[in-house]
Design goal:
The protein has helices spanning 21-42, 63-79, 109-114, 185-195; strands at 4-6, 9-11, 53-56, 59-61, 84-87, 99-107, 120-127, 130-138, 143-148, 152-155, 158-159. The protein is of the alpha+beta class. The strands form three sheets. The chain has a seven-stranded mixed sheet with strand order 5-6-7-8-9-10-11. A two-stranded antiparallel sheet has the order 1-2.
Length: 198
């Protein structure tokens, strides 16, 4: 198996104690890559509206989401027997004891459905409610982000750090609208009105 690169150090799955943060990172990366490969093979813009299944207001799921989650769960459970997978599509019940994988197999389903190239596979590992590792695979850009407790956060082999920018007028503002919780829209807009002029 290929090692996962965390910074300049290649971590082999056998080099880590079972279920260490780096071991969990390696397994999550393999699962994300598997799902990402599947999603890339099905990528298409303008999917027919019949393929869009509504889970709720402005919340969609497709067979791609479900299949990707099944592929992820299969690999995670084989690699860490006795662990549990909490996923948006197949098993949304929250679990907190032991090793729990939190999975969004197609983070950005609406973008995927419209052919907009901004969606990802997101996987986190928690042990007894404490987050230990996480991977986000930006599928269209084939760019993997990863973090392990005590090991920092990385984009490929580049270490991620908090920006040194301290002046609001030089900052980059990233935001999202509360499109699933319309009752929060006014609160969001009030905050946005205060932040944007700065």
């Amino acid at each position: 198996e290929d090692p996962v690169h965390l910074g300049k150090v290649a971590i082999s799955p056998t080099a880590c104690k079972m279920n260490s943060s780096l071991d969990l990172l390696h397994l999550a990366a393999r699962a994300a890559d598997r799902a990402g490969g599947y999603i890339m093979s099905t990528r298409r813009g303008g999917a027919p509206a019949a393929a869009w299944i509504s889970k709720g207001h402005h919340d969609w799921v497709t067979e791609v989401d479900r299949t990707a989650e099944a592929l992820i769960a299969e690999l995670l459970l084989q690699g860490a027997p006795g662990s549990r997978v909490v996923g948006e599509e197949l098993n949304p019940a929250l679990a907190q004891q032991g090793l729990v994988w939190i999975v969004d197999p197609l983070d950005g389903t609406t973008n995927f459905l419209h052919g907009y190239p901004q969606y990802a596979v997101s996987i986190a590992a928690a042990v007894d409610g404490v987050l230990e590792a996480g991977v986000i695979l930006d599928v269209p850009r084939e760019c993997r982000y990863g973090a392990a407790r005590g090991g920092g956060a990385w984009m490929g082999s580049t270490r991620l750090r908090v920006s040194t920018t301290t002046e609001p007028d030089r900052a980059l503002l990233g935001t999202g609208y509360p499109f699933k919780q319309m009752d929060l829209l006014e609160e969001y807009l009030d905050q946005f009105r205060r932040i944007l002029p700065a």
